[in-house]
Amino acid sequence: MIVCIAVVGHQNNPLYLQSFTEADDALKLHHIVHCSLDVIDERVNNPKKTGPTLNETFLGLLYPTENYKVYGYLTNTKVKFILVTTDLDVRDADVRNFFRRFHSAYVDAVSNPFHVPGKKITSRTFAERVSTIVKSFGLSTAV
Amino acid sequence: MVGREVSESCVDSMIIEMVSSYCDRFCSAKPELAARRIEAIGYQVGLQLSERYTMERPRFSDHLEAIKFICKDFWSELFKKQIDNLKTNHRGTFVLQDNRFRWLTRMSIDPSETNANTSDDPSVATTESKSAQSASMHLYFPCGIIRGALTNLGIPCAVSADMSNLPACSFVVRIKA
Amino acid sequence: MDPTSSNLGKMLLEEITPVVMILRTPLVEESCRKNGLSFIQMIQPFSNFNNIDVPVRTASDQPYRLHQFKLRLHYASDICQPNVEAAEEHLKEVVTRASDNDLTDLNSDPPQLESLLRSAESESQSSRFQIFNKELIRASSFSEHEAFDHPVACLLVVSSKDDRPVNKFVDFFNTNQFPSLLNNGAMDPKILKYYLLIHDNQDGTSENATNVVSEMRGTFGASDCRMLCINSAENGSKDWQDNPWSACNSDALLGQDLGCFLNMDDLDEIKDLMQELSSKHIIPHMEQKVRVLNQQVSATRKGFRNQIKNLWWRKGKEDTPDAPTGTMYTFSSIESQIRVLGDYAFMLRDYELALSNYRLLSTDYKLDKAWKRYAGVQEMMALTYFMLDQSRKDAEYCMENSFSTYLKLGSSGQRNATRCGLWWTEMLKARDQYKEAASVYFRISNEEPSLHAAVMLEQASYCYLLSKPPMLRKYGFHLVLSGNRYYISDQRKHAIRAYRSALSVYKGNAWRYINDHVHYHIGKWYAVLGIHETAIKHMMLVLACGHQSIATQELFFRDFLQIVQKLGKTFEVFRLQLPVISMPSLKVIFEDHRTYASSAAVDVKESLWKSLEEDLVPSIPIMRTNWLESQPKKKYKDSNICVAGEAIKVDLEFKNPLKISLSVSGVSLICQLSEKTDSVDSEVGDQHATDVDGHLSTSVLQNDLELKKLKSSWELNSCNSSIVLSEVDFTLGGCEKTKVHLAVTPQLEGVLNIVGVRWKLSGSTVGYHNFDAILEKKRVKGKRRTRKSPSSNLKFTVIKSLPKLEGSIINMPERAYAGELRLVVLELRNQSKYPVKNLKMKISHPRFLYPGSFEDIEAKFPSCLEKQIDCKLKGLHASSIQLSSNLLFSFPEDVTIQGGTTFSWPLWLRAASPGSIPLYISIYYEMENVSSDMRYRTLRIHYNIEVLPSLDVSVQINPSPSRLSEFLVRMDIVNKTGSESFQLKQLSFVGCEWEISSLPPNGTACTSQLLIAGQALSSFFKLKKCDKSTCEPTTSSLSTLVGSDVSFGPEAGVLFDISRTPLADFHRYERLHQEKAEEGDPSNIDFILIAQPQESIGGSSAPARLFCHHACHCSIASQIPISWRMDGPQALHHDFSSSFCEIGLCMTIHNSSDYVVSVRIHTPGPQSSTGQLSDATGIAQSPRLAGNQEGWYDVSLVNDIKVTSDVMGTLSGKPASLDSTAPYIWSASSSTKIEVGPMSSTKVPLQVSLFSPGTYNLSNYNLHWSLLLPSNKDGLDRDQVRQTSGTIQGHSYYLTVLQSP
């Protein structure tokens, strides 16, 4: 299952971080997300290590921690999506699909005129939409 | 975004209304303030549009790619046509020319007056004739859009517009080093 | 780069070197001890050589030379695997020692990021880690599965004091002094031996010793024996400079200087002893052994045949079940031989040879599943690869391989795994692969106990810092992890250090959770260490954590309080974050010459008061000068005025950012009052005030300095009695905000400065907050005008105490019904002892509120308004008042309010129009004693009254159809209230040129005078012009309202006198008000409807209420300029048998307009139809409904069209139809056209012919009229509303004709 999903702005400031676990491990997840930023930077700065195709928004598996898998996604606008999951075998397609849907959700959220660019995303609609996307994660590759 | 449509005339009249209300009502006293306001609105719009239109595409590796994106996809999303001509001096200045800029097609200016408008930057062209100035007011919005989009793509820049012969219009993008 | 110069290379050259086992007798030790050294310590410094030059040959006879060499010396007793616990203890002790010496910098500020980046290199290489790693590696020495720890040589030492030393040597062998490893066959017992005789020169001369040596030479062989003389120096006079033992570890007993009895010769002797030992014996021996072994190996294993054989042989061995650690190999086994060969080669730097052998060996072990040995070999292979500086890939592969293999072995391999890992990381570091190194550290840390893990993680973090580009976040993360581990294995100082350096990463950015966590723990640990100030500093940072969960917030808060308690004294914080003060909410209320009756009055905009007071008070500059001139000018420029003994109120909003509730106590202002009297403290205060000002102007302030200032002035406050401060306690629930009203009352004159606010959080922590920082942004109410320097808003000039009025309006209702009239009393109290005089009052809405006359107070309401027989007019002050939107009322001259007395004055309140109406009253008064700084003050009273709609009166006036110059007044009254029902009392008509009378004339105006809620009622009156003689000029009729009244219903006996104040005055204002709505018309008339609510009739208990509704400017000038009357017979007899009947009628047409009107009377021809009584429905209405409707009735304010129209709808029937054919014929010309001059009337003869008896309604004619306007249009412009032409249906005129007998 997906443990945590995070949106990080282009100044590496957290815009949205939602954990989907009962346990109170917000701190750990924050740390994980925070660290994964390093990996993203690394991936982006020396592109020879980046994902399948050059400059693809989907960055693939960032790094496996002891019991999590962290996937990354970097939009054209230098906004980072970070997905932390506990699934051991994750189909790449699923993750891509997830990120695609999440991205559109994000775009709608920031298109909200009441959203201040670069500030935390507080829209409730966005939260609901995200949770539905998360629930449907891995169930089907269809959009 | 597919299938979603909006009446052009609505958009046109809305922009015109926006410009006029800022110029005449809100800050009629100082036009440069009005210009800044309008530009800011455009900036916001560009910010959001760029978010939307850059979905599903790989990141741009350099500035030129981003500019090209603006000229091609972004422009055709906005105006159903591409920028007609793109020039650059390879030192961070790009000139985007649109031979028939949609938002100016409804506008006509006495050519004798527009000849006076040699300055390529509307913000300093305060001495020119009233009509030309008001027309140039309508260009702050697209300028803002371009700036917002590029800034959001990580390219801080300054955008100015030049409308020496309507309805052709060229936008000058200066990328801040 | 040269691997040997790298860190790892150095380590290897130190660690993987030949071991010399030492056996010695106790006497040897004893004689060494004299120097405070053990034997090994004594010779250790001379056992590594940097400048020897020993020729060596490889197995394949390549000559090369060794320049560097080192021997590791170990007592035989030490040659065994160190036991785990001891090792643990040792390591822990090492770490603790490291932590002790950096306690000092714990008190300094946390390091900055750039400084960290700069010092990263040195940090990661810091001795801490070096020592720890070395110790950790040592912990896994002397394992049987690898050979480089096996002793190469054995040094047997006997003292010359031993009796029969030679036998001692022999005893070493007989008595089993060898370590177990040699005996159990893991190591080769037949090793090179070297015999040494120690002679202590303090025990006399050495002949004896020399004999022994010669004897030894005899027995053990000449070359392997040697004598060493020590302690030749007398009484510790050293003749050598640099102490070789200074580097030597400090566990030798200090104080006594090491090696004091050794002189130069001794040192030289030791030196060349070791020289000889290494270069003449050990190295050649090893070289020799390498050669021999190599031949063996190549004989048995090299070559194709051997390979096959070996392979087959191993296969054979497969099926034998093997021990988990693999099969037990003795030193004699070929594998061990190869291993020894490899290690020797390694130690002799013949890496190729070593590598080839290791390769060979690793395959064997792999086949044998001897995993530990396999791992060991792999490890060595990696190292050799490194030393050869070739094929990094292989090196890493081997390392990985060996590391994982060791881990697979579990506990038995764990130590080695760690060692391997450390070497691996060193290797990676040497190749600048810091990231990989870090991950290896991380892997090690997973296997190790928490303390080791902590050190490993810390090293990992530094690796991340060193990697290009530095991975700061991982650096921080690993530091946090290691900090945790340190804390678990209670190394708090290390933990704090780790966290502190992690801070630099998280500082400033938005990752609040992490930030809070780090700060919180640092704080806690500091507290544990007893460094409370720093602890609190960190705790403060996490206090305002609204984003955390409630539990976390409670935790943070509780721990914070605990630490504060531990601190002992009350902790004082500048700008404490709990609770948050919202500075924009700061509001200062002070009263200089303006005083406020209520807080409501304060909130009213100053500009509004000003406009109200402008002609009430003398203009401000005058006032200012006359109080300024009495003072030295400089002191009071742009500072506010307040009066001694009167409180200055400050409203401030506190907000609780947390979800838990906070208890705040003792909130009070901090002020500075500097008195004008030349006392000592005044200087202090003054200088305080000034330098505070200086501070404020230059708004750069260090917090602690500011805090000190606030504290000092706070103490000043609490001690001196000249300032009275209010204290507030309150409790804030989660996320609540509350407005706190603070007050300061200066008792003496001087300069008062409100500096800040101070409060106590849950009894232990005191928060200070100064006001200056935000003054630019905030609005101060009651400010006289915007100042240049913001600080002056909180700076007051206290002048000596003055009388002050407090006022209120007794029994002022919150809500009333429109038109309600009542008597309220304005009450003014003068608390001071001085009297105040010549009061004036300004009222914003005289339409609602009107000052009565003094005797109205005891007057009984409403009976006082009833008509007396003698109605003497009291309009004296009323006449003087010019009508304006607001009213200035000056109390009688003799009115003065003595000190301590209360003064009351009646006011009339009338709720004029519905809505929520703000009433502003400003009362001006002057002091008796002019000597004071202020000559006058104003009292501002503000009330809000909500007026509900009640009766809705609309009036229509039409010319009466029957009589000229007579009008029908129709009044529609709608009761719009929900519940109230009204008793209509009277309708008064204002003005004297008309007279009103009810219709029908028998007194009662309408059927019922009671109007239930929601009901509508319309009643009719007649308006008749009375002759001019009794009438006065209109001007006076305006001032005193004489008029005619009509009472509803018979039993409403008494009539109210509308000419009395207040009715008259209110009416005047109504006129004024309604006049604003529509342009005046000369011939306008006003009505006043007086009603009383139903319940007040019987019950006298409730205060009698009176309603008066004014309908003003009801225009009689109707739209139709003409009116006419039919004159003729009403009933007559006629004999229809003889002939039809002709009747002459006369129509009198009157033109009420001032233009000529042309009228055409059109009477329908014979084709016109029957008009029977059937159309009697049309009777009453037809005149009104005929013609065109719009603009017919006059639109007065109180009248809204919808209601009236549907009132009419109830009454209206269909108009009399014109085309109904009448049984009579107008027998004059079908249409006659005449012109009527302005204000004149003409008569027109008409004739009608009838054919049968009956009653006829001769209404089926119509008049068409049109104004003949003069050419200039202005006449038309004046009254646009009039129309210029129209057609009117004829009035009904009934004619009854009877058949004459």
TrEMBL record, chain A:
UniProt key word Endoplasmic reticulum: yes
GO CC annotations, alphabetized: endoplasmic reticulum; Golgi apparatus; TRAPP complex
Keywords in alphabetical order: Endoplasmic reticulum, ER-Golgi transport, Golgi apparatus, Transport
Subcellular location as annotated: Endoplasmic reticulum; Golgi apparatus, cis-Golgi network; Golgi apparatus
Xref: Pfam families: Sedlin_N (PF04628)
UniProt keyword Nucleus present: no
Organism superkingdom: Eukaryota
SMART domains in the record: Sybindin
GO-annotated biological processes: endoplasmic reticulum to Golgi vesicle-mediated transport
Family per record: Belongs to the TRAPP small subunits family. Sedlin subfamily.
Subunit structure and binding partners: Part of the multisubunit transport protein particle (TRAPP) complex.
Protein name: Trafficking protein particle complex subunit
Organism of derivation: Aquilegia coerulea
UniProtKB/TrEMBL annotation, chain B:
GO cellular component: cis-Golgi network; trans-Golgi network; TRAPP complex
Pfam families: TRAPP
GO biological-process terms attached to the record: endoplasmic reticulum to Golgi vesicle-mediated transport
Family classification: Belongs to the TRAPP small subunits family. BET3 subfamily.
Name of the protein this chain belongs to: Trafficking protein particle complex subunit 6B
Native species: Aquilegia coerulea (Rocky mountain columbine)
Automatic annotation (TrEMBL), chain C:
Segments of this protein annotated with the region Disordered: 101-121
Biased composition (Low complexity): 112-121
Domain TPPC8 second Ig-like: 819-939
Record-linked Pfam families: Ig_TPPC8_1st (PF24545), Ig_TPPC8_2nd (PF24544), TRAPPC-Trs85 (PF12739)
InterPro entries in UniProt: Ig_TPPC8_1st (IPR058541), Ig_TPPC8_2nd (IPR058538), TRAPP_III_complex_Trs85 (IPR024420)
Record domain TPPC8 first Ig-like: where: 605-769
Domain of life: Eukaryota
A GO CC term attached to the entry: TRAPPIII protein complex
Protein name per its UniProtKB record: Trafficking protein particle complex subunit 8
Organism: Aquilegia coerulea (Rocky mountain columbine)
